[in-house]
Model the fold of this input.
Amino acid sequence: MAVPPEFDVAGPAAVDPPLGPSDPADRPGTAARAGAAERVVLRLARPYLGRLVGAGLLAAATEFAGLALMATATWLLMSAAGRPPLDRLTVAIVAVRALAIGRGVFRYTERLAGHDAVLRMITDVRARVFATLAARRTAPARTGDALSRLVSDVETVQDLLLRVLVPASAAALVSLLAVGGAALISPSAAAVLAVGLLVAGLALPTLATVLTRRSAAELAPLRGALAADAVDLTHGAADLAAFGATESALRAATGRAGRLARLERRLAAAGFAVDAVGTLVAGLTAGAVVLVALAAGVPGVLVGVLAVGTLSAVEIALALVGAARQRTQLGAGLTRVAVLLDDTAAPRPAASPPGSAPSAAEPEHGDGGHDIRLDEVTVRYRAGAAPALDRVSLDMRGGRRIAVVGPSGAGKSTLAAVLTGAVRPTDGQVTIGGRDLTTYPEDELPGMIGGLLAEAYVFHATVRENLLLGRPGAGEDELIAATAAAGLLDWVRDQPAGWDTVVGEEGGQLSGGQRQRLALARALLAAPPVLLLDEPTEGLDPTAADAVLASALAATPAGHSVLLISHRLTGLAGLDEVVVLDAGRVVQRGRHAELVSAPGWYRDQWLLQEAAERGYLALSP
Done:
């Protein structure tokens, strides 16, 4: 059985990064390289700078306490060997105890401060990445790769701060203090120590970077590809089996997993080699310090202190090797995140909640700023194919409410996809406020046009969390208004956990009608200036559908436009216009009363639906 091209995942091409060469994050030579990516992350870290500086100082205090503990303990043991009076050792004994306790306290507070700052920042970064991925008009990333960006790549931001910047700054500061302390005993020994620390803290990190850079750059795209493979092999198992492509997909995934394992082994081997050199540097530096100190006439006890202190100081400096190695491995993931965050637009005012009047700071949407005009729009999904939309024109001024109806396959959902920017017209033009739709930034358009589309996703989270995706800053009253308009409020109040009821994966704990109401409530809560409702009453019985549609339209703020896509013709009497599509063309248009009184598809379908619904109601208990 021949395998269609879209399921032929075997071969070398399958190992390419999932987003392909068109994605900036995976294209060599882009502006968002590792250094630029780090600058983007550091810019986002500015609000948390105080906490991060505190974490760095606490980390330095921890390392210095460890270094001082080793030096003091060495002096205590070597001095005690001579059996001096106890009072000469009392200060050292107390210092050892204080440093041991202090080191633990400093470490705990450093972790607390660092993780508090980073987790706060990660929450913000993950929300930004999610919003950017959701706002893309171009072909979206595969689900698994998008998940990899949202989880694994975002965690590289955390690792950059906690495993690179904080320990590196602490190691550099403690190294300076160690050299200063050694200089008080023997300047010549301090000079030797400084050389050893430079080798351990600069030369070896550079060597580690050179040895691991090439392999590390492949990790993030390869992990994204494996995540996409996992999704394809689970969610797409039936399709793969139908086309006989399961074995091919498994071979491709196995090949990528093997490639990832080889890369990780290569990185581990390079790390072990550099660590071995680091151990050698520590030993040689300590030996050289001892020889120089003896030659300078330093007393024996202090020579021992210098030797142990040197080993501890070099060990602390070697943390820079781990930081450099970690930074190299994080580079690709940071770049992928930075591409999504670099051009994030400035925050915009939140939309008005359902039923509220526009504020003084937010002009009413009747000034042409959100007028939509389709001028002879044609859409073909493939060259030579029949048009999904054929020279469709539509004029939707701010505040108008228009319904688009027609048989299945007429082009209704394609029209919604054109308005959201997911599909670009083959011919014709779409303008919003007189401006071509294609000129709007990807992150700006969803704030203007949005709503309930044909495949509204319900997340494995609580009712509240699903709703707040529509407008994260919404309060309790706004949640109540949106769910009441969608007919979901009574159900929420009946649940023991209320707003914190978990709806299950893809809303599996809800009925089809409840999932639809939840998605509708989320769309109403977002309250974009142009609200798209694609089959908002799908899965509801006729009586509930009529009530929900009327309530949703009533809850839409004055001045906001509504484009309703529906196969049901009930409830359209109050709309400004009804457009009938058939085979991608506008075959009828007008108000409900005009279309019902004129021969055509609309009247025929209206009579059929009326008869069917009267029969349903007659049979209802």
